[in-house]
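During the reporting period the student researcher (J.K.) took over the structure-prediction task from the postdoctoral fellow and processed the backlog of single-chain submissions. One of the processed entries is reproduced below for the supervisory committee.
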Amino acid sequence: MTRELTQLQILRELEPVAEANLNRHLSMAKDWHPHDYVPWDQGRNFAALGGEDWDPSQSQLSEVAKIAMVTNLLTEDNLPSYHREIAENFSQDGAWGTWVGRWTAEENRHGIVMRDYLVVTRGVDPVALEQARMIHMTNGAQSPDDWGGFLENVAYVTFQELATRISHRNTGRVCNDAIADRMLQRISADENLHMIFYRTLCGAGLDLVPDQALEAITKVLTNFVMPGSGMPNWRRNGVLMAKHGIYDLRQHLEEVVNPVLKNWNIFERNDFGARGEQARETLAAYVAKLEQDVLKFEEQRDRLLAREAARGELQTV
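J.K. obtained the following structure tokens:
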């Protein structure tokens, strides 16, 4: 019979794991400074133009790159909401509290450096960017009402940090700018270390309370949305990013869902009770459906890209 523990009991049982992995993170994390990744000389060049309004011709980014950069930045901007969720569902004491503070400080650098880069290079309209930030941060982000606390939240951030890493990495590639690529690779490295911490703690939760943890994982995955959900133009921008390979269903399945489930040995372990087995069946069905959804998405995407290419050819004739 599997164990059933309260959230407080789970946090107490896992605190030694949190402390060990906090120390591991601190030994591996690289200190870096946002100002070292921003081309300040470009800002001085634009300053010579005076106080004129932003013009699209000033940006060296493609439309896809601009949308991806803004989406990723606005996602990072909601850090106060994420901090609140993590602090409330983990703990502000001991190793947990130290981790929450450290994670928040590291995440804050991401928004700082991305905004400085976009403003200095005139990559996007700074007024429109600020307006979108105000809307998105005012709306905030919060866990669904039926999430039970630590297990749901640690499962979510495991998948979310990995997904965000991939989105940042691929955004850097489409910017066609070595400075932006280097900056986003640095951010992606942070996100990977964060993911490893959360993945390890969620894995320890699986060992401690297998049924409870797998139910939480299944609930999170079958209802997963990226953290930027709800920002201005979220649906349109998300579709465009998926269409151009910034973050799409195949990446979600093959680079996020499957590797994490494999790391936790979800479909091979034998320590689940009846509730865990039921959750595993639900999860297996979800993964199977996701595989079919990937194929449908790619067929639709390829048809759309072919039509766009054909229209482009006609326009050049």
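The committee noted the following: The longest helix spans residues 274-316.
J.K. will present the remaining backlog at the next meeting.
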